[in-house]
From TrEMBL:
The keyword Transmembrane helix applies. The chain crosses the membrane at residues 378-397. Residues 350-371 are annotated as: Disordered. This is Prenyltransferase alpha-alpha toroid domain-containing protein. Residues 56-168 form the Prenyltransferase alpha-alpha toroid domain. Keywords: Membrane, Repeat, Signal, Transmembrane, Transmembrane helix. It holds the Pfam family Prenyltrans. GO terms for molecular function: catalytic activity. It comes from the Bacteria. Residues 1-25 form the signal peptide. The lineage of its organism: Bacteria, Bacillati, Actinomycetota, Actinomycetes, Kitasatosporales.
Length: 406
């Protein structure tokens, strides 16, 4: 739903469970953050609710783009880890040991584990994070935002990504006999209701389709993480069928996302009073989800829409927004250094410490799936006319030559 899935999940948990925790506002750069911005941290907005999350996405996106992050950026993230392996959203004074009142959470921990696993060389930190996540798994096989909190699709999915990144088999990580995939399957709506995923059941146990949860759960149900995967497109639109396993539930969720993107090529905000506003972050997540499910061809129009519309949103959203776009573009085989006229990798790097190494990438031969008919059809048409004209000119010259010799 926005660039801070961890914060969004917490806010949604408040709404669903009626907890006493204050809701979290949508991200926006803050000229006067309530806490000092530490060295090594990406972004200049208040990191209280999203410091570890945005740092993890930024590092993961840089690694995906072939950039070697700054040592101080990696050091800041590793320094946020508690002794038991968990992470809080932000610790202003990491020199102080975590205590019972430290607000650790599964989303920050799982995101950090994925980033550190991708960077390599931090095996001990990753293992400790995954060990803590296993210790707070709910009996239904899933995870809530906070330890012991009710299972939700987003938290469960980001933890699945951490397990996979650490080399675990998510299906074998069980509590009371239930795996994360069992938990996600319980949050999948039947085809009669669209095949999407719910974030959580409401107080009466009813499931309500949620695009943000669906994009996350499609990736999680396929055993992938925040960077997704890029399989060859299946060439067949996803269809909805009775889901008896997480794989079919993921295909059903992908079918829902295809339908949700069909009219406007973007998703809309689910926040009260903002239903007509585009949801840029969730659209990027949907592109990643569809590509991971093998439907990159069907995600291409949404990515092209983001190329044309998401620049201002990313500038406001900061490092996590740039990271989401980089991960979506890379998954689909598009160059994040030339994204609607913007170099997302450079823009992301400008929000944090200078990277240790930024290789000059070789020009990539980009395979662009058909969009809406668009410019590629025009180019082929013009190219065809040029070819016909060239052939005609050659034939005309040959004809003149023969006439001169006769």
């Amino acid at each position: 739903m926005n660039v801070r899935r961890s914060a969004a999940a917490l806010a949604a948990t408040v709404v669903v469970l009626g907890a006493a925790t204050p809701a979290v506002a949508a991200p926006s750069p803050s000229p006067s953050p309530s806490v000092a911005i530490p060295d090594g941290l990406f972004g200049d907005a208040d990191p209280t609710y999203d410091g570890v999350w945005r740092q993890s996405l930024a590092l993961l996106a840089q690694d995906t783009a072939g950039v070697v992050p700054a040592p101080e950026a990696v050091g800041w993230l590793t320094g946020q880890q508690c002794a038991d392996g968990s992470f809080a959203a932000f610790r202003a004074d990491p020199a102080r040991a975590c205590g019972a009142r430290t607000a650790v959470d599964t989303n920050s921990t799982a995101a950090a584990a994925q980033a550190l696993a991708a960077l390599g060389g931090r095996r001990a930190a990753v293992d400790k994070a995954v060990g803590w996540l296993k210790s707070v798994q709910n009996k239904d096989g899933g995870w809530g935002y906070t330890p012991g909190g009710a299972t939700d699709a987003n938290s469960t999915s980001v933890v699945v990504g951490a397990l996979a990144a650490a080399g675990e088999r998510p299906a074998e990580v069980r509590a009371d006999g239930h795996s994360p995939y069992d938990a996600l399957l319980k949050l999948a709506l039947p085809c009669a209701d669209g095949g999407a995923f719910a974030f959580q059941p409401d107080q009466k146990g009813k499931l309500t389709a949620n695009d943000d949860a669906t994009a996350a759960a499609v990736v999680g149900a396929l055993g992938k993480g925040l960077a997704g995967a890029s399989p060859k497109p299946t060439g067949t639109p996803p269809g909805c069928a009775d889901a008896t396993d997480a794989g079919q539930a993921a295909r059903n969720g992908a079918a829902h996302l295809v339908e949700a993107l069909a009219d406007d090529r973007h998703l809309t905000s689910a926040l009260p009073g903002a239903e007509d506003q585009p949801d840029y972050g969730n659209t990027a997540d949907a592109v990643l989800a569809l590509t991971t499910a093998g439907h990159g061809d069907l995600a291409a129009p949404a990515l092209r829409w983001l190329e044309s519309h998401a620049a201002d949103w990313a500038a406001r959203g900061g490092p996590a927004a740039y990271a989401q776009l980089i991960l979506a573009a890379d998954a689909l085989g598009s160059d994040p250094r030339s994204f609607g006229g913007h170099d997302l990798v450079k823009l992301l790097g400008a929000t944090g410490p200078a990277p240790a190494e930024t290789p000059t990438p070789a020009p990539r031969q980009e395979e662009r799936p058909a969009d809406d008919g668009g410019s590629w059809s025009v180019l082929w048409w013009v190219g065809g006319l040029c070819l016909v004209a060239a052939v005609g000119a050659v034939l005309a010259l040959r004809g003149r030559g023969r006439a001169g010799r006769s």
